[in-house]
Batch of 3 targets.
Target 1
Amino acid sequence: MNPEVRTLRAQDVAWLADLHNAAFADYPVPAVLDASSLGFYLTETDVDPALSRVAFVDGAPASFCLGALRGDRASIRGEGTAPGFRRSGLGRLVLEQTLEALAAAGARTVTLEVLNGNDAAVGLYRRSGFEQRRRLLGYRLARPGRGFRSRLSGGLAESDTDTAIDRLARWGWRDPPWQLETESLAHIPAQHLDGRAVLLGKRRGDHFWLYALAVDPERRRKGLATRALSLLPAAWVGVPALIPEEWWEAGALLRSLAAETEGHWQWEMRRSLASG
Ligand SMILES: CC(C)(COP(=O)(O)OP(=O)(O)OC[C@H]1O[C@@H](n2cnc3c(N)ncnc32)[C@H](O)[C@@H]1OP(=O)(O)O)[C@@H](O)C(=O)NCCC(=O)NCCS
């Protein structure tokens, strides 16, 4: 096999969706994207085609690795090899070339996420110098009842996302994983409760997918987060598997609301690209 590796190009998105879907077809969490949702994901997470690599075998797309850079921090936003081409070194090839491109563009650290149980990917990344840094957990809960904190009044109001993100950052949004960094959240609708609590997320069917929630530190432990959640327009609240296990206040709130931890969680893995 004589693979050809090249930089991703913007117009590749149409066939990249097919390669992505083939690579993730045997994945425990379904991940089927069309070209437009893949394009949205690439924009939202700052994937840079010039810092991403694709491998072709006899002209057929076989493996891809998506790189993103924010300042001197980089992330691998996805990687996959079509099942027929696995265990032939392509995953490592596109990864190493993407890491070289990221380092040349100024990256000093790289992070990525891997679903628990994905031993193939953990093996690939450990051999490339990544270490498992922390677990990222997901939750599901029934929307809390409104009578729960009846002494509180006021409703959720739409908020400008920039203002909400500014509040999140001021109120403490420490060391989030890439997909919860403020840059990633910039495309997600926001709401606020009396200017004292903000939340970002979107409704899909009977679930509200919650990406961020924060309460002004001076108004904590007064039921504001619970009230904000009780006002969401969906029977269920889903929290994607992106919440660092060490965010103990988030864990405490979710446990107090009888949230269930999702069976699928992710490893956040990290390596340094600094010389030496
Ligand atoms: C993970 C994945 C990208 C690896 O692609 P690949 O082209 O088969 O990887 P390589 O052939 O370059 O393997 C490099 C090393 O990774 C490890 N590895 C890869 N697949 C493995 C497997 N099934 N079991 C154990 N280790 C594995 C090995 O250390 C391997 O080196 P070796 O073959 O010399 O032992 C591929 O399995 C895949 O597309 N999986 C589905 C999508 C996915 O999980 N993406 C990563 C998370 S986003």
Target 2
Amino acid sequence: MRIRELQWEDFHPLVENYLALYEEVKEHPDLGISLFPHPPTVLEETEWFARVFKSAHSGSGVAVVAEENGRAVGLCDVQPKGPQETRHVGVLGIVVARGQRGRGIGRALMQGAIDRCRGKFELVELSVFENNLPARRLYESMGFRTWGTLPKGVKRNDRYINLVFMVSELK
Ligand SMILES: CC(C)(COP(=O)(O)OP(=O)(O)OC[C@H]1O[C@@H](n2cnc3c(N)ncnc32)[C@H](O)[C@@H]1OP(=O)(O)O)[C@@H](O)C(=O)NCCC(=O)NCCS
């Protein structure tokens, strides 16, 4: 497994990994990542990928991929929170393909992303479902601390889940 910058050829595997979350959530309704009400279209995925790719390659954001046997199996990206006086804050997202989790890929991805955030962002923030204990444990061990909780911040079908906000100040 190696951690590297996002490349154009990662489009198909990353879209497949993302769309697979819609199957996973049917089996595991507690899956700790927020999804659109319907799987994104190819056009929406293309727009998303182009935005992340451009941000990483122009230097405004960060996007790293975990590659296993020549295929992207995980992505961690950090995007500026806003264009104006919040641009020193990066917003982090991470996902590892089902079947590849629990092998250290998430930790390596986060480390790779955070290393690339130094000099670019001063704070890195993220939000996580309160019941997503594997993710919260990972974030805490990477130096993130909880600064707030939005009660009922996620509504999945008719069920609410609290949304926990975490931040890490980069030294
Ligand atoms: C959260 C996620 C990115 C972690 O990636 P991963 O590759 O499984 O994580 P790692 O194998 O690197 O494990 C890192 C740490 O996470 C925690 N962890 C991972 N799996 C765990 C589990 N099943 N139970 C408890 N803690 C767990 C542990 O602290 C672990 O550190 P350790 O191995 O030193 O004990 C991955 O599970 C994932 O993509 N989940 C679905 C999408 C998602 O929840 N994204 C986050 C949205 S905020």
Target 3
Amino acid sequence: MSRLTDLLRQVRGTDAQLGADLEKEISALTKRRSFGLVFERHQPEAVELPGQPIRRGAKVRVLQPRGETAKGDSRLWRVDSIETDFAGQQIAQLIELVKDAPEHTTAPIEDLVVVAEFDDKIYPGLVETGRVERGGDKPFHTVINAENFHALEMLTYTHRGKVDAIYIDPPYNTGARDWKYNNDYVEGDDDYRHSKWLAFMERRLLVARELLNPDDSVLIVTIDEKEYLRLGMLLEQTFPEASIQMISSVINPSGVARKNQFYRADEYLYFVFLGTSTVVPHGGNMLTPAEAYEGKRIDIWRRLLRSGTNSRRQDGVKQFYPFWIDEESKRIHSIGDYLPLGEDPKAVTPPLPGLVPCWPIRSDNGEGCWQISSETARTGLAEGTVKLGSYTASKGRWSVSYLRNAEKQRLARGELEVVGSDQNGALILKQSESIARTLNPVTVWNQVSHNAGAGGSNIIRALLPDRKFPFPKSLFAVEDALRFFVKEKPDAVVLDFFSGSGTTAHAIMRLNKQDDGRRQCISVTNNEVSAEEQGKLRKQSLRPGDTEWERWGICDYITKPRIRAAITGKTPDGEPIKGEYKFTDEFPMAEGFEENAAFFTLTYEAPLSVRHHRAFERIAPMLWLRAGATGRLIDDLGDRGWDISAVYAVLENIDDAESFFDAMCGAEAVHTVFVVADDDAAFQMVCRELRSDLHVVRLYESYLQNFEINQGRGF
Ligand SMILES: C[S@@+](CC[C@H](N)C(=O)[O-])C[C@H]1O[C@@H](n2cnc3c(N)ncnc32)[C@H](O)[C@@H]1O
């Protein structure tokens, strides 16, 4: 490239226009990636929106007839007009959405489903579908039933740059009908399955990136052997400024058989560190089982003789001195001064007759040096952190051991406990209970609690007896992974946009219980019905969008009930949950958690109703989310045209705002005010009347600009 840059400079010197033209072409060429991860973007992705009203101009698909299990027609149509036939049925005239020679057809509108392609503009709304309140004034956890791409776009309005951690466990692309692209399962024999998966992930990661706090946040993505190589490269490409690590985590120690290959016992977690994001040690090292060292006596003494490079006498002149040993009592009597280079140790006389010297002599019998000076060694001997080691008869030599500074600091922090001292006065130590919280975690994890069966499926079985969810994560694995980043952030906002059974929210509630935290989790998942279940439902003449179909969807059947059960401590039948959490803390699951949660479904609003303020009810939850999901949700402004809740307020009626300003004087906890103002001068007037520390957000212009899904991202 530098050669090209030089040539360009020369061309520009002689012909500026030619230089500019060439530069433009070269820049376009360099944008076409020729190495790294190259894949088809498969544009645009599309999602069916069952339940959306069919209007003139809508983009639709024709559903397969009721009772039909074969794959439906994937063509897209535009509704040209809707007429009512003689039997009173509404029939849509459809035009195929292709440039060349589009077909025309008709279909009853009940056989149509609205489709949103990801480059279509969409105005999202939220409808509350339930809530659980046991957490007083704590922020609410939220569960959003939605296509996650659209939910992420919606969150760019409410949480841009505000998310502290994202944990996702996306479909692993196993080829076993574990995920859909454009409404079709991606099968193992699909030639494009990897590029479809990459396109699917990239679109979502690019939006997720806008939600993460660029100064300090983390993205955690789990994956297995099928896509881990490609995912690693995609993450590098999408987060070029971040540092990335991959952890290998044992989730099934006996392993799953792989023909002619090693059995697979682990899966992987990518950690994408943004800004100053730092691992805060909290457990053991994640490799050694906690029970292997807790409370046990340990040997953390190190040899005082320096080894490796810089270990000759001349490398540490002042570290060449004798320990004088009383061999009868096996004690260090005293420590001599260093012997200047060139002087013979054999010429040094003992301080008392009978004492034997121990000089730093290396294994090759050459003169070496100790790790510390004689003064430091004397202090160590007095405090019990330097001791006589073993005697090697073949060499006729003693060794000396000591505690390094790192261990002395752990002692000072209380991570090591002094049990007593030996005959030499040297300390006898054991790991204190708290040691498990402060070891540095390593990149291979092997924790029994991370076993997907015991920590995942069994927990779901206890919370939701008789309901099944395929492959939930171990609750404790998610808790451990997140604790490294949110342990010292009691107000952290955590997002999981492939939340499945809701394990992440559950883990966050457990973390809150451990330190009285007020962390909140946003869980997004669609209401997909499993492939197996779908077949059964279709045979019963049901289709997506039917109440009887939707009730079996993951979000309604698993995610929301699981979070409700975790908080209340009761199963959906009202029975106390059997069993205990057995992890860092043990308590009955029936105790539940003092937490709040609210459940929503993402809706798609018509731009006209948004523009005319008619969609306030649907927008209201987003304002509440943006203001921190705390306290009462303002969903009705009543006749006076304003309302003030715990931490935010909404003012619609600017013309009659005096009473609002008066009420705001006493509302000290309020930090955000949404003002509906089409007129700039009126908005400025409101701002002047309000406290200067308030965050004042203008609606609806900002709504239309920010909520309009797809703002030219080119998806
Ligand atoms: C592997 S599961 C996550 C399991 C979760 N970690 C747990 O412990 O239960 C992935 C989930 O993402 C959901 N999902 C897949 N594609 C989605 C999409 N485009 N939008 C929303 N949810 C999606 C699936 O329905 C599935 O429940």
